[in-house]
Write a structure and sequence with these properties.
6 helices; 212 residues; Nucleotidyltransferase, domain 5; alpha/beta; single chain; 36% helix
Amino acid sequence: MSQHTALRTFRRTLRTTHRSFQPTRCISQTSPTLAPPPVDPPMAENPLDSLMSSIDSNFRRASNDYFSNMIPGQTTPLRNLTIRDWDEDDRHKLHIFAHKHNTHLTLSKPNRDALISVSCGNIGFRKAGRGTYDAGYQLAAFLMNRIQDKGLLPQIKKLELIYRGFGPGREAVTKAILGSEGKKVRPLIVRLSDSTRLKFGGVRSKKPRRLG
């Protein structure tokens, strides 16, 4: 009985092996000719890039045409429109520094060299009197006379007033220039500017003084 079982098992194994075994076929005889891999077409130019480049070129051309037509007789586009005041500055400067304790006046050349520098202490005021309105007015009148005495008036072609601070002397010097004391200096003034210091943030302010 065991021999018949072993024989049937052997035959079944041979059938399974025969079914699974198949001769290999030559690829060159059965498979068709392989086509070369497709080549990707060249990428087309991005329309957005071409649009931006055309806009940029049109903008440059329009800007050059606009600025070149601003000045009569200008045919070439302008490269630099920045005005350099320090290269063409021919104005004398009168610096008016007025704070609550004193007033300082400084007349300088166009290259910032000082010609006259005076304060209320130079004309006889002391201590709290230096910060008064009258001291500032007399200081401005003294400066006008000093300019004439030193012969500086003929060489001053243009004069710029530069204010700094909001003390009583600020208004006093302005009144003196507009009065009879400044009648010879007033026609030379071509510009007014304010260089008062402004604090953005910074350290804590000093505690205000309280009396009583």
